[in-house]
Amino acid sequence: MKKIGVLTSGGDAPGMNAAIRAVVRKAIFHGIEPYAIYQGFSGLINGNIKKLALGSVGDIIQRGGTILRSARCEEFKTKEGQLKGVEQLKKFDIDGLVVIGGDGSYRGAKALTELGFPCVGVPATIDNDIPGTSHTIGFDTALNTVLSAIDNIRDTASSHERTFIIEVMGRGAGDIALFSGLAGGAETIVIPEADFDIADICDRLRKGQERGKKHSIIIVAEGVMSGTEFAAKLKNAINIEIRVSVLGHIQRGGTPTGFDRVLASRLGARAVELLMEDKGGRAVGIDQDVIVDNDILNILDQPHSFHEDIYTLSKELSI
Ligand code: F6P
After folding, report:
1. CB-based contact 316:309 (threshold 8 Å)
2. What are the pLDDT digits (tens) for 168-212?
3. 11 lines ligand 1 (CB under 6 A)
4. 294 phi/psi in degrees, rounded to 5
5. Residue of 12, 103, 127, 293 with catalytic role
6. Neighbouring C-alpha atoms within 13 Å toward the C-beta of 56
7. How far is the CA of 147 from the centre of ligand 1 (A)?
8. Ligand 1: which atom is nearest the Cα of residue 102?
9. How close is the Cα of 164 to the center of ligand 1, in Å?
10. Averaged pLDDT in 10-residue chunks for the chain of 319 residues
11. With contact defined as beta carbons under 8 Å apart, do 43 and 33 qualify?
12. Annotated catalytic residue 200
């Protein structure tokens, strides 16, 4: 392994820069030349590739986003696009590739692996929906961003005695809603992993009002429905004052937390080690604070783990 490429793809996540830094520095530490592939798989197809120096990743560990930029690339979903990517990697004499991203990025890394090119996946998405790791890079930061928003909204919700519906990101997975809902003391959490019953939610809201509760917070994961749609359902069933707040891409930016920086540094470095050990076709992750790796060819076949215990606990604590 003499030259390693690194790219970020899909939705950016705070901590991606710390992972890039780890890949680059770890490679250089071991005498390997690191190459940046800009704009994800689109940049790979177009040969937007440049050699990186030690200093090119200085002063980025604390920055959100990704200095390599990112893209969602339709062309790379085709065999033709993937072959163009391999061609570019060969043109630059790159021997192995670290792909930092979420679900779609893993599918790209899997395709390259199937074409015989050594790739290692590093899980980075605020959604925390990648199998084979308890945490993805960016989730902890997004969780804290959402929490700060919930705390702010709680102030105004309480002053005006209103019910707030807060729509958070998470298309197929409700971890952002679930964890922020528990940590933010939300009355109701609506996630794709669990059914909800409007009558039951209204009943809980009524009981809260009877006990003199001044406000209620309902967290809705976007994968279930929009906050506005959910508000319409609620308004049909109960006569209360409702406001909707959509947090949107605020959740994707910002300074990565200490947890995300440490995780990103460990995962990025391990990805390089795997390539050095000639173990392409792997996806790194963390399990009970131990860095692990799994086969990238079948990792996405496994279901994303649903924390039913946390969901149940949040219901018990928000009576
Ligand atoms: O994959 C991360 C994510 O932030 C999801 O939570 C969200 O649904 C999606 O990306 C939004 O993607 P885009 O920025 O392309 O609209």
Report:
1. no
2. 999 999 999 999 999 999 999 999 999 999 999 999 999 988 988
3. yes
4. -130, 165
5. 127
6. 15
7. 19
8. 1
9. 23
10. 97 98 98 98 98 95 98 97 98 98 97 98 98 98 98 96 97 96 97 96 91 92 98 94 97 98 98 98 98 97 93 93
11. no
12. no
| Nearest atom, ligand 1, residue 170 CA | 6
Q: Which residues contact 54 (CB under 8 A, 6 or more apart)?
A: 24, 25, 28
DSSP state for residue 72 in the 8-state scheme: -
Q: Please answer whether residues 136 and 124 qualify as being in contact, where contact means their C-beta atoms are separated by less than 8 angstroms.
A: yes
Does an H or E element contain 275, and which? Answer: helix 258-276
Q: Which residues pair with 221 in a beta bridge?
A: 168
State the Cα–Cα distance between residues 301 and 283, nearest whole angstrom.
13
Of all protein residues, the one whose alpha carbon is nearest to atom 1 of ligand 1 is 11
Under DSSP, the state recorded for 124 is B
- State whether the beta carbon of 252 lies less than 6 angstroms from ligand 1: yes
* Pair of tokens at residue 46: 């177009």
> What are the contacts of 238-242 at 24+ separation with CB within 8 A?
238/202, 238/205, 238/206, 240/162, 240/163, 240/205, 240/209, 241/160, 241/161, 241/162, 241/163, 242/162, 242/163, 242/164, 242/165
Would the CB of 40 count as within 6 Å of ligand 1?
Answer: no
Question: How close is the Cα of 224 to the center of ligand 1, in Å?
Answer: 14
Instruction: Give the amino acid at 218.
Output: I
Does residue 226 line the site of ligand 1, with CB under 6 A? no
- Domains belonging to the chain, first-starting first, are 3-138+256-301 (3.40.50.450), 139-252 (3.40.50.460)
